[in-house]
Amino acid sequence: MADAVRLPLAEPVALEGSREWIWVADRPSQSLKAFRAEDAGAVRSLQLSGPPVALAAANGLICAGLASGDIVAIEEDSGRELWRNAAFRGAMQLRSGGGLVWATEPDGGSLLAFDRSGPVARVPAQGLSAFAPANGRVLWLSKDGVLVACDLIGKTPKTEVMPQPFAAGATVCCANALWFSVTNGLLMVDLLSLQPRSVLTAPEGPVPHLICRDGKLAGGSSTVFILNPMTDMSVHVLGVRPQSPLRGIAATATKLWALESADPVVHIADFT
Length: 272
Prior knowledge:
Layout: E1 3-6, E2 12-17, E3 21-26, E4 31-36, E5 42-47, E6 52-58, E7 61-66, E8 70-75, E9 81-86, E10 93-97, E11 100-104, E12 110-115, E13 118-124, E14 128-134, E15 137-142, E16 146-151, E17 158-161, E18 171-174, E19 177-182, E20 185-190, E21 196-201, E22 209-213, E23 216-220, E24 225-228, E25 232-237, E26 246-251, E27 255-260, E28 265-270
Antiparallel strand pairs: 1-28, 2-3, 3-4, 4-5, 6-7, 7-8, 8-9, 10-11, 11-12, 12-13, 14-15, 15-16, 16-17, 18-19, 19-20, 20-21, 22-23, 23-24, 24-25, 26-27, 27-28
């Protein structure tokens, strides 16, 4: 069973795991809060200049997307603001992978990559429906079922038409594969050929949340399930029983957090 903890926050909107802490973005207080992953003990609070809407972390870099459309980069160890970029008009998605933070907005038509110095790449992504960062590149699925792999060194993007249309939820790169949440399953796609390889049975899907940490995958909405492809190709359900659909999932190397949407309640479980 997982432990359920009520956070001292009014409206947490996003969460992200870093090296040892779980960061949570709280909209009413316009702040980022860091908690110990094992017991939700408060560690640090950082004030933002506006309400947050998205959050991502990579290699000691914390990026918060604000309702204004700005992205603010913060050094995790010091809490110092590194840069600010007026990237979008409002709503956005932030994802981390390969040491970078990637960002897009709904129907924005492009993906932006950031590191500690600021923007490093802009990738055209017209018709994007889902995306997942990988080492040195990003993969995205178009609304008409074309999978595209783009790198950061200017090579021609590799494309592959998916053989069958599918309703895709969240997607993530994990354990040398690309994973899509599909109807009651996880679709595994080869990162090199972009060919579908297999579908694993999952307790629900498509789900809006998939994450990867140290080669282990976790996802869910009304449940939380995990997969460690390096040791076992079976999906396992954790003892998490949320009372409302999950707003997000985050993890450190050893602990997983599942945040409810109706109340500021997180379920903390082992992630091994």
